[in-house]
Amino acid sequence: xxxxxxxxxxxxxxxxxxxxxxxxxxxxxxxxxxxxxxxxxxxxxxxxxxxxxxxxxxxxxxxxxxxxxxxxxxxxxxxxxxxxxxxxxxxxxxxxxxxxxxxxxxxxxxxxxxxxxxxxxxxxxxxxxxxxxxxxxxxxxxxxxxxxxxxxxxxxxxxxxxxxxxxxxxxxxxxxxxxxxxxxxxxxxxxxxxxxxxxxxxxxxxxxxxxxxxxxxxxxxxxxxxxxxxxxxxxxxxxxxxxxxxxxxxxxxxxxxxxxxxxxxxxxxxxxxxxxxxxxxxxxxxxxxxxxxxxxxxxxxxxxxxxxxxxx
Length: 312
Prior knowledge:
four-stranded antiparallel beta sheet, Chitinase A, domain 3, three-stranded antiparallel beta sheet, 7 strands, 3 domains
């Protein structure tokens, strides 16, 4: 039950209020003001409580945490000025919904809070603040953000390399069959023929015409075209034959799949994922970037209009 409640609380981002933290020896931290935000203060004990709540985020710097606390106070003040209140009924309904989704009655819920060192009043206060901040964020940040397809397409074109797929090669094949149990003289004759065809191709004779003239097997019917394939998906003998070739070059004859093969590398390409396949992903990226930038700009405005003293 405790884990279920903690997961739920984590999901909604609520920061809990605990008692004043002691040192390792059990002594109490001497309180002092570490920040002034307009007419409100943040004390060292406030900061220590916040640090304790973030203990799962290892290496969290207390100066960063204090700046976050300052930002939260600024936002709550902005919400108050806007009359953005959460009514008792709205808060009660939200708490009831959490209890319902986690199958907890009132006693079980109170017990789970107690195990975390919380009272229901503390929980409700923090939950109310979180709902308020969420509404404020939606109004001042999210509501003014839109992404159109022109932006998405421009981003796609500027960053096409980020949507590249593995390199592919297209090869053509001339295949000369080696009959089963062929006599040595027959094997030698086919080898010589393969070498002669290779020399003709290497000297620039039309490869497709050579395919139609001498190639055997299934691929001869498609002008020897093996189509596009990723290098690591080609059979090892072909992959090795074309490893150092440039488009238009022909590999020396090699034996594979029951015959002599003469391979030409026709094309190398790096395909890109189609725009339609990635536009939703890009839209999400652009939206998140705009949200982040708008949020930072809005916070700067709040800070610029406020009196802030960081005494840490």
